[in-house]
From TrEMBL:
UniProt GO MF annotations: carbohydrate binding
Entries under CDD domains matching the protein: RGL4_M
Rhamnogalacturonan lyase domain sequence ranges: 97-170, 184-301
Designated name of the protein: Rhamnogalacturonan endolyase
Matches recorded under Gene3D superfamilies: Carboxypeptidase-like, regulatory domain, Galactose-binding domain-like
Key word Transcription present: no
Database matches in InterPro entries: Carb-bd-like_fold, Galactose-bd-like_sf, Polysacch_Lyase_4, RG-lyase_II, RG-lyase_III
Keyword list, A-Z: Signal
Protein origin, superkingdom: Eukaryota
Keyword Signal: yes
Amino acid sequence: MFLSAHYSGEDLVPKFNAGEAWKKVFGPVFIYLNSSYDGGDPLKLWDEAKQQMLVEVQSWPYSFPESEDFAKWDERGNVSGRLLVRERCINDDYISAKGAYVGLAPPGDVGSWQRECKNYQFWAKADDDGYFSITNVRAGDYNVYAWVPGFIGDYKYDVAMTITEGCEIDLGELVYEPPRDGPTLWEIGIPDRTAAEFYVPDPNPKYVNKLFVNHPDKFRQYGLWERYAELYPDKDLIYTIGISDYTKDWFFAQVTRKKDDNTFQGTTWQIKFQLDQVNKTSSYKLRVALASATLSELQVNFLTSLV
């Protein structure tokens, strides 16, 4: 299966108009077989296969495919640069975009790369100082997109670029200014497009996947969404700013409650906070960063007014 909506949703199912031509190269697919002749620990085979995987990653793009649609390494280009963050309410100086994900994707609006699924994208992770290098990019027209863990929003470089065979493009320093209307009054979690920092319960013993025991990706255990109803059987989650701890008190997923008759009930979470001083001439804005959503509707109420 080369294309799937699993973990992504309907948005990433390619849609084609009548008579629309489309072509995309998948592969080549590498299958590695190893064996142990001495009846030793089978995990050593797994470790050896992972080492071979690292070798193959460095060997891509391969030179042996004969298809004209598979661009060889000398038919591709490279892009490099540095991404900085300017957070005027935190620091007057520029901040290195440590661990930023910087990519080339087809031209579009800010964040359009998230729903683009028919063409090619090329991504790299910036180092601690914000430097990035995107290598082996197919020739074509692209925009530069990025997002930075710890900062809300998406970045797009205003200038479109054309990648040609063998090109080496240095973008220099790029600056991302996250959306902001003023200082942060309170915040729950980390805007890093995961929910790993929130409370992830232990799985039902019937569903335990041993691969994810004592693993950072504990949220991948099966059936965790059902634990919400066990933790909150009658009333929904209430989080109090300044008192609650999001690592213990904020369930990692906003889910429905499964009832005894196998029906599902929508849930309403509350965030309680107090502002000692309110400037009635200023605007206060709530920003919500989602890791993922499917078949969902999010409603936000302040007191009794629907926003």
